[in-house]
Each structure stands twice: as C-alpha cells, then as structure tokens.
Write a structure and sequence with these properties.
Length: 290
C-alpha cells in the first residue's frame, strides 16, 4: 500500500499551472502537488512580482507565454509543453489539492481505473475570507481537471470556460480547495471584467462547445439551466430572482457574513452587471440602426 503522507512513488501525471503575479497563492498550490506528481509545469504571463522566484524552489519547468484569455492559454500549454505523461492535471494558482483527493487518485491508479476513464470531474470547495461557502448551490460544483491529453481541451470561450473530454468520465468524491480571499476591490474588478465577457457571449450567441443537457454531466446540466431557465427570464428581473433562490431557498444565509458578501456579489451584483452590459450592447445596436 502506498503511503501518501510520505510519498516515495509519484503518479504519472503532468500538472499545468497558469500564473500571473500569484506570489500570495502559488506556494500553497505547489506544495499540494509537487511531491506526488511526476512533473509540474508553470506557464507564466510575465509576472512582475515574486511568483517565479517562489516557483523555482519547486520546479524548473517554467515557460512564459503572452496571455490572451484562459482558453487560449490552456490550449497553448496543452499543445506546446513537453508533457511526458498521458494524464494532465490543470489546477489554478489559487487552488490546492486536499489529502483526500491525493489518496483517491492513488487508489484509482492502484485499481487501474485510469485505463477505463478519459477524464475526471472534481468539485471545488470555495473559501472566502476564511469561510467555506457551502450553501447557496455553490457546492458541489464540478469541473473537468484531469484527463488524457489527447482526449481533452479547453472550450473556446471568453468566460466560464470548461474542459471538454471525448470519452468516459468519472466523478471523484474528493475536492480541490479554491481560496478566493483577496482585496474586495480586486474581487469586484475581476467580476466586472467577466460580466463584459459573459454579456458578449450571450449577445453574440456563442454558448461554447459544451452541449447543454439536463441529463448530462454536471457541467452540461448547469449550461442547460442557464440557457433554458435563467436565460429565458427578463433582464434585470432575473438577478433578483436568482439571488433570492440562492440566498434563501438554497440556504446561502447559513454561510454567515462572508456568505452574504460572496452570494450578493456573485449571485446578484455580477449577474445584474451582465444584464447591464447586454442592455448597453443592444441599445448601441438600435441606435446605430437609427
């Protein structure tokens, strides 16, 4: 039996981490993967802080590439890095792997299950100002993060990109921790940028490459609900309804003050700004026609 607390054997997995000025997050992320995975690659977008100085303590597989968007950067990494393993693991710099997930992956290799599956869905446990955001429908939320490199890629989408895997997919029980604790102004700034991307995607009717399906995997189901339920509601009304559903019906209020801030910004304010951006773009088109 492999002792994962003092790993002598490494799993044949290639880890890919995208970075840009992540000096506050990257070390915890690296510590959670470098000791038990075969190789760790960093794709940096020309950081100006101490990110690379920290990274060099854990890996020398460092590449720099100009950032356009997450989709293009992830697919560039997939195509251009000298990955020696069949399985790749994409993890963000502000995330880290739990001991539970590490042990679960070792068991999968021990049983030879990785041969039967082409990708693995992992849920994220969001931490906001030190609080686990457990309610409001925010947990569990599944993402495809580990897959066979020739079977998977990131869909071409400006915001809310997901990996697409052609083949059999297994849902894992353990989680990745995502720490979103940061300056609130930075948190809002990011969501304002994402609101613009989301609005452009909706107005241009570019819904991504994942086929929405109520009976599909968790990502497909979420896309179906967003398109066929939320997407059919009137602009400016739906953010109020969504926040009420998320905060009261799905018990978001149980997440305390941290949860109130998180659910309000992400579940109401962000969605309201998406509608504002949609309204702006449609109004501009009408005025141009006049």
């Amino acid at each position: 039996m492999i002792e994962t607390e003092n790993v002598k054997e490494k799993l044949p997995i290639s880890v890919i981490i995208l970075t840009y000025n992540e000096e506050d997050n990257i070390e915890k992320c690296l510590k959670s993967v470098y000791s038990w995975t075969d190789e760790v690659f960093i794709v940096d977008s020309f950081s100006t802080d101490k990110t690379l100085e920290i990274v060099k303590k854990y890996t020398d597989k460092i590449y720099q590439h100009e950032f356009t968007n997450y989709s293009e950067q992830r697919n560039w990494a997939q195509k251009n890095l000298p990955l020696k393993n069949e399985l790749v693991f994409h993890i963000d710099a502000d995330e880290w792997v739990t001991d539970g997930l590490k042990k679960e992956l070792f068991k999968i290799f021990q049983k030879g299950e990785f041969k039967r599956y082409d990708g693995f869905l992992i849920s994220r446990k969001t931490i906001f100002y030190g609080k686990w955001i457990k309610h409001g429908g925010h947990f569990p939320r599944y993402h495809l993060r580990i897959f066979k490199k020739h079977k998977g890629r990131c869909e071409k989408r400006e915001y809310d990109q997901h990996f697409i895997v052609e083949g059999n997919i297994k849902k894992l029980k353990s989680v990745i921790v995502n720490d979103l604790t940061q300056e609130i102004s930075e948190f809002i700034k990011k969501h304002l940028k994402w609101a613009k991307f989301e609005a452009e995607t909706i107005v241009r009717e570019k819904q991504g490459e994942i086929v929405p399906s109520f009976k599909g995997n968790p990502v497909q189901k979420m896309r179906w609900l967003r398109k066929n339920i939320y997407g059919k509601m009137p602009l400016f009304i739906r953010p109020f309804l969504y926040f009420f559903y998320r905060y009261f019906i799905r018990l978001g209020f149980l997440d305390g003050v941290e949860g109130l801030i998180f659910h309000f910004i992400q579940g109401f304010w962000f969605r309201f700004m998406v509608d504002v951006k949609i309204w702006e773009m449609k109004k501009a088109k009408i005025e141009l026609k006049c």
